[in-house]
Amino acid sequence: LIIICICALFLRNITFQEYIEKEELREIESQITTAQGKSRIHGIEVEKDPEDKNAELLKDITTSLLISLYDLRAANPGDDWRAKLTLQNQALLDTVNYKEEGGDHPFSFKEIEHRLAMNEKLLADDIKPEHPMYSLALPNFMKHIIDLYINLGAIIILVLLIGEILSGEYENHSINLLFTQPLKKTQIILCKFWSSVIVYLFTTGVILGAITLIGFVFGEKGAFNYPILIEKNNQIAFITISDFLTEGLLVLTVTIVMVIALYLLFSLLFKHTLLTLFVLLGALVGGYIVTSFIT
Q1: How many CB atoms lie within 10 A of CB 167?
Q2: Which pTM value belongs to this model?
Q3: Buried b vs exposed e over 237-249: b needs ≥16 C-beta within 10 Å?
């Protein structure tokens, strides 16, 4: 089922390639429409008052912006991506100048800063830009799937796989048979714990293997040093996809080990599967709320 979901997401990405091109074109058309409207407004202001230097400056800036946007619109999908990023950067710089001179524009300074920083990083590292969600490049596709797995999927999948590993045995009294064996209760619990950890590691390995196989055979090579923009101490910073995957899976593994330990503890206390699951869910939600409040 997991592999089927991964295949479905990759097929979605293939299907959406034409949508990506149309989306980019729609955004450029929207920016052109905005710039044309601003240019007409400032042109009228200059006609009314030829001495209005600010209106004249704003009109000149919108003219420069329109030139870059027209060039972007005329570019073909197969054209050099470096030239496109350079044109995007010029349009963004013109937008910054326009806003700094008192002009009104839908883009915020923060959004422009992030776009400029990302484009400059891609140009500096000579890495082709990829869509954040619908990329066919193996590293970017893997990042998207692992992001889903880390944020939600791992705990849900794990609970489904180990849901009755201990509490279910208490419910059907099969645990009593284990207790008749020459084993200490701690040994039984440890076996349950490590078997759950192995289930998690095996599931993660299957997911990574499926992503790698699908991306390698049907996708594009991409780059594992593709930059991911983050904010650190209110400053723009970058981490690579490889760093994200390594650190993300490491943190996830520690979290999963803690969840397994909690689940086994609640199983021993309540000896009922549904009650154990509800208490575990409450503990996780409560921990998330407290952590969010502190941070």
Answers
A1: 24
A2: 0.81
A3: ebebbeebbeebb
